[in-house]
Amino acid sequence: MEESNSSSPLGHFWVYFWMPDFAYFFPAALTLLIQNMPIKYHTFSTPSHNTTSIEQNPASITPKFSTSYHPFQSQSQIFTLLIVLQSEQKVIMGCTKEMQIVLFLLLASATTLALGQGTRVGFYSGSCPRAESIVQAAVRSRFQSDPTVAPGLLRMHFHDCFVRGCDASILIDGPGTEKMAGANSRLRGIEAIDDAKNQLEAVCPGVVSCADILALAARDAVVLTSGRGWLVPTGRRDGTISLRSEASNLPGPTESVDSQKQKFAAKGLNGQDLVTLVGAHTIGTTACQFFRHRLNNFNNTNPDPTIDPAFLPQLRSLCPENGDGSKLVGLDNGSPNTFDTSFYANLRSGRGILESDQMLWTDASTKSFVQRYLGVRGLQALNFNVEFGRAMVKMSNIEVKTGTDGEIRRVCSKIN
Q1: Torsion-angle region of residue 56: left (phi > 0), alpha (psi -120 to 50) or beta?
Q2: Cα separations (Å) of 345 from 49, 207, 365?
Q3: Residue 99: per-residue pLDDT
Q4: Which of 12, 159, 281, 293 does the annotation list as catalytic?
Q5: What is the CA radius of gyration of the chain?
Q6: Helix (H, G, I), strand (E, B) or coil at 43
Q7: Residues in CB range of 29: below 8 A, 6 or more apart
Q8: How many helices (H) and strands (E) does the chain have?
């Protein structure tokens, strides 16, 4: 391998990618940071293709899909990223501080890769370039008049993906459809999806799926509540089957951590994904009927002992024992309209609203993830915004339909 003759205060830096038609995006800020560093990019195709090697000067790279990211390749389901550093000291610990920062940013970028079953970031860049901006505008418009749209869209996307995969089957109308299941009785945000679909059909008829609209809208909902966005891989197609009975297996408000983990594992999600995605409860509300049992005769004895005793009177006043079970209470005591980590702080303080939420703190297998989001000393910290985006990309690719599977619905509430 020929070494670059150019000099740089950051030393020499090589990045090797195994990218079988993979969509990988570097943050533009990172590109700017390493513009003066000699970098060699070597891409290797799958064994059935010819091996290629590409060397490029990062200073010449400009983002194409958006102002934030640059695409290197497209379409993949599997990738392996190997980063090999070579500085004048020859070891990572001997790298300059600047190089170590670059390494950190590269590794952080890898956590938000667009990885899916045939989906990719920028899928509509040619067929419907305004797709994402149209969805974003529709969600923002509805959010401005009704902020409950944001948590509603997140919840709807989650419930959709956990039943037959992320195929927008939750949007189909009918007496025996998923929409009619008890767990989906309080769906919010459907109007935002319909608004976006109507506008997209006027501009790009028959192109953008309802499943993709829902995935994009969930991301936009987080941004509107002060969370951080992420790149959403698109290319899903819509399902043609929606059964109420299949929605009965969604995780419930009283389920044990073991039961929740089993349901997540069945969808390819792990314990960290569970804790991360439940963190969406940092925004939104729940009804008294789903947690009132914790306040008085929990397990036929006293109140749930995991509830902070100082918090109990407040909950009882909000949800009297014989009061209205449909009354709504914020899931995040303190900042129910802001996407942040206060939900996890509430769990630590015994102020989780749902029994299933509070269990994330009392169960040893999930407690450590909550602590890491809170930055507990002695544990490796996790960035909630970064990890939430990563987990959402992972979840949004559950059993997706691509290629010729499914269809592109003209109206999201009914099959063609």
Answers
A1: beta
A2: 50, 43, 17
A3: 57
A4: 159
A5: 23
A6: strand
A7: none
A8: 13, 7
Q: Answer yes or no: are the C-beta atoms of 347 and 358 closer than 8 Å.
A: yes
Q: Which residues pair with 18 in a beta bridge?
A: 44, 80
Q: What pLDDT is attached to residue 240?
A: 97
Residue in 94, 86, 99 with CA at minimum distance from that of residue 3 = 86
**Which pLDDT does position 117 carry in this prediction?**
58
Question: What separation in angstroms does the CA of 273 have from each of 260, 262, 381?
Answer: 11, 12, 15
Please give the C-alpha separations between residue 18 and each of 72, 78, 81, 103, 217, in angstroms, as whole numbers. 12, 9, 6, 18, 31
| Residues 72, 43: Cα–Cα separation, whole Å | 10
What DSSP state is assigned to residue 4?
P
Query: What pTM does this model have?
Result: 0.75
Question: Residue 33 half-sphere exposure, CB side, CA atoms within 13 Å?
Answer: 16
CA 23/CA 26 separation, integer angstroms: 10
Residue with token string 């790009």: 204
All residue ranges of the chain with pLDDT < 70 are 1-117
Query: C-alpha 172: how far from its chain's center?
Result: 23
Token code pair at residue 25: 């995006």
3-state DSSP call for residue 328?
A: strand
User: CA torsion 186→220→352→178, rounded to 10°?
Assistant: 30
Instruction: Give the count of beta carbons closer than 10 Å to the beta carbon of residue 10.
Output: 21
Note the pLDDT of residue 98: 58
**281 labelled catalytic:** no
pLDDT of residue 29: 38
Q: Within 10 A of 378 (CB to CB), how many other CB atoms are there?
A: 5
Residue 104 has what pLDDT?
53
Name the residue type at position 79.
F
Q: Which residues of 76-96 are buried (b: 16+ CB within 10 A; e: fewer)?
A: beebebeeebebeeeeeeebe
